[in-house]
Amino acid sequence: MSKTDPIADYLTCIRNATRANHAKVDIPASRLKREITKILQEEAYIRNHIFIEDGKQGVIRIYLKYDDDNHSVISGLKRISTPGYRHYVTKRSIPRVFNNLGISILTTSQGIMTGQEAKRRGVGGEILCLIW
After folding, report:
1. Domain check: are 86 and 60 in the same one?
2. What is the 3-class SS of the chain, one letter each residue?
3. Looking at the structure, do residues 60 and 83 belong to the same domain, yes or no?
4. Phi and psi for 113 in degrees, rounded to 5?
5. Which pLDDT score, from 0 to 100, does residue 3 have?
6. Separation CA 37–CA 31 (nearest Å)
7. What is the pLDDT of residue 14?
């Protein structure tokens, strides 16, 4: 795994697990990954998550969500801001993902939140990823 972009690794682990129809996936934890996971659960993209303390940095266990036909609720994940290219937006230029059928996750001065929440609060920030 690449250590230069942990968010891209996080998204790749989830993408690979959903394509393989796994029930759960374990990902090394960080504060940013925990916040993104909370947003995914609030927006109903995953069933549940737990934090497992292992004496080091910990592990986030994510229980993936599938529909009745065994298709993943998450159909796509895309990393926008990378360590080499930071993509910042104002409150007026926050992108809509598939006509508001997906979400964008931003890191703002008020914390990590979805694009719709950032518009509601009137703040812009760095777009981390898009999920649909």
Report:
1. no
2. CCCCCHHHHHHHHHHHHHHCCCCEEEEECCHHHHHHHHHHHHCCCEEEEEEECCCCCCEEEEEECECCCCCECCCCEEECCECCECCEECHHHCCCCCCCCCEEEEEECCEEEEHHHHHHHCCCEEEEEEEC
3. no
4. -155, 170
5. 74
6. 10
7. 98
pLDDT of residue 1: 52
Residue 10 included in any domain: yes
pLDDT digits (tens, 9 = 90+) for 25-56: 999 999 999 999 999 999 999 999 999 999 89
Question: What's at 130, amino acid-wise?
Answer: L
Does residue 71 fall inside a structural domain?
no
Residue-number span of the structural domain to which 27 is assigned: 6-64
Where the chain has pLDDT below 50, the residues are none
* Cβ pair 52, 102 in contact under 8 A: no
Whether residue 1 lies inside any domain: the answer is no
- Residue 88 zone, left/alpha/beta (φ > 0; ψ -120 to 50; rest): beta
Please tell me the number of Cα atoms within 13 Å of 40 on its side-chain side: 29
Per the structure block, which two tokens stand in for 91?
């409150």
